[in-house]
Amino acid sequence: MPCNTWPRFLAYHTDDPRSIARSEERRLAAARLSRATRDEIDPEAAFRLSACNYAARIAYAQLATDHVTSFTAALPRSAPIFWVTLIRDTYTLPYDTAADLDLFKLQQWARAELRGASFVGMVEAALYTNADAVRTNWKRAISWHLHLLVWGISKQRMTEIRDSLNRRCRTLIPGVAAAHFRPVRPEKVEGQVLYMLKAPVNEYRIIAETRGVADPAPGEPLREFTGKFASKKYQLGPGDLVRMANMLAGKRLDRLAFAAGDGRAVLSALNCAARATERAFAAQERDRAASQRSMARAQQRRRR
């Protein structure tokens, strides 16, 4: 079931970091949490807005659904809203190097392709666990891709953008389109915001499609490759759950989110609210440090 309701979103994100820690301890988990990830998944560190922190995702989603739905609900009923997914093989890399990709370039690509539109979007990481089915010497791969809520353009213009992208761009899986879109009713916007903000919960496997051979010769296979591929998703296993947490360590939700047009004001207000706790914590830390320095000076004066 897609993660597009609050019950499902909370079910996916309420066991962190315990579920990740348990996964790491299982005998078949071949990955280990990095030190940075251990620090960032702690629920008490949610104010840092780390993308691998489930508590941070819940808090950010609460703000995001409020801000985005309030804005889109005020749009004229005649103004279409589109749910858009953008994928490109340029931003798909082997797992070991994927964390170093400059995600700002991916965001800028979307801004250029959707020039003239307004949107709020999010960068997401999809894990393919058998990328060697289509790429020699690859095993696990990360497809950095985008989910966006787009408005301010017509369906005809959105169709033109999609068709142009699909002519020019390729994805990891041959035959899979780079751009998809569909209209979204205002009452469905909240669910799409939740979907774009979910943590990685699935792995994807590339499947070579086959068909039966009508009259195979003796010794020949009964099925043959059609030349087409598909993908299927499965729940992340213990090791890959840890790998995806490590992949997202050091990345912040407020920076994975991006916007254009009227969406900039929506995202700015959202991020200002999300960073308020971080600012308050930083102020407390400064006050605590200043108090400690003052106490140290006072002790030095007494010793004199």
Helix share bin: 40-55%
Radius of gyration: 23 Å
Portion in beta strands: 15-25%
The number of strands is: 8
Uncertain ranges: none
CA-CA gap between termini? 70 Å
Shape category: globular
Order of secondary-structure elements = HHHHEEHHEEHEHEEHHEHH
Mean pLDDT: 90
Biggest beta sheet summary: 8 strands, mixed
Structure class: alpha+beta
Count of alpha and pi helical runs: 12
Q: How would you summarize this macromolecular structure in one to three sentences?
A:
This protein has helices at 6-13, 18-25, 35-41, 54-73, 95-98, 103-113, 155-168, 189-197, 238-248, 253-256, 263-274, 276-303; strands at 81-86, 92-94, 118-128, 141-151, 179-183, 202-212, 223-235, 257-260. The protein is of the alpha+beta class and 304 residues long. The model has no long low-confidence stretch (mean pLDDT 90).
Task: Describe the secondary-structure layout.
Layout: H1 6-13, H2 18-25, H3 35-41, H4 54-73, E1 81-86, E2 92-94, H5 95-98, H6 103-113, E3 118-128, E4 141-151, H7 155-168, E5 179-183, H8 189-197, E6 202-212, E7 223-235, H9 238-248, H10 253-256, E8 257-260, H11 263-274, H12 276-303
Parallel strand pairs: 3-6
Antiparallel strand pairs: 1-4, 1-5, 2-4, 3-4, 3-8, 6-7
Helix pairs in contact: 2-9, 4-8, 4-11
Describe the structure.
With 304 residues, this protein is an alpha+beta fold. The chain is 45% helix and 21% strand. The protein contains twelve helices and eight strands. It has helices at residues 6-13, 18-25, 35-41, 54-73, 95-98, 103-113, 155-168, 189-197, 238-248, 253-256, 263-274, 276-303, and strands at residues 81-86, 92-94, 118-128, 141-151, 179-183, 202-212, 223-235, 257-260. Strands 1, 2, 3, 4, 5, 6, 7 and 8 form an eight-stranded mixed sheet that branches. Helix 4 (54-73) packs antiparallel against helix 8 (189-197). The radius of gyration is 23 Å and the shape is globular. The protein starts with 5 loop residues before the first helix and ends with a helix. 35% of the residues are buried.
